[in-house]
């Protein structure tokens, strides 16, 4: 079995990057939504078809953004828990 050696700081950095990416993606979606909204370009039947696809895209983006935020939070929690256990172990060993 192989092992991966990674520091708590590296794990925290990964968690923070995931959350930063989620926020950046959220900002991009907000910007795109204001310039690509269905009512901005389409009328009639074309608007209905576009609106359906637009809403599917928005829902998928919301799910992705939430997943990135959640994953970043979980990774940061794991890193913090590991750090606490590591510090407790070091204290117990007199270090």
Structure, described:
The structure is a single chain. By secondary structure, the chain is mostly helical. It has a domain at 28-34 and 41-75. The chain has 3 helices and no strands. Helix 1 runs antiparallel to helix 3 (44-92). It is rod-shaped. The two termini are 30 Å apart.
Got a strand count? 0
The shape, in one word, is rod-shaped
Order of helices and strands: HHH
Question: Would you tell me the overall average pLDDT?
Answer: 89
Q: What is the CA-based Rg, rounded?
A: 21 Å
Class by SSE composition: mainly alpha
Largest sheet: none
Low-confidence stretches: none
Helix content: over 70%
The number of helices is: 3
Query: How far from one another are the termini?
Result: 30 Å
β content, as a range? under 5%
Task: Give the oligomer, counting copies of the same chain as homo and different chains as hetero.
Answer: single chain
SSE arrangement:
Blueprint: H1 8-35, H2 38-41, H3 44-92
Helix pairs in contact: 1-3
Q: What is shown here, in short?
A:
The chain has 95 residues and is an all-alpha fold. Helices cover 85% and strands 0% of the residues.
List keywords for this structure.
single chain, 95 residues, mainly alpha, 3 helices, 0% strand, rod-shaped
